[in-house]
Amino acid sequence: MIEAKLSYRGVLCIHCHQPTPLSSLAEHKEREFEQHGQSESDEFSIFAKPLRCRTCNREAIYTPQDVREFDGPPRKRTLRERAVA
Fold this sequence. Notes:
Elements: E1 7-12, E2 19-21, H1 24-36, E3 51-52, E4 59-60, E5 68-71
């Protein structure tokens, strides 16, 4: 049986340097950007909403140049501990 190689598109978190997969909205906007050849002034429209890191839970805005292909499955989101009231 041949095992399929898993990969995903994402960015390296600028805070903790761990891979963060693109959201489905960011992937859609990235494809539109590539297909329509928008100008550099439009590059930040791809990630109008910040991406949240699945490791450190911090957000940042990335450019199309930050996107790369990562091997393996994306990391699952870590659960934030709830404050006990």
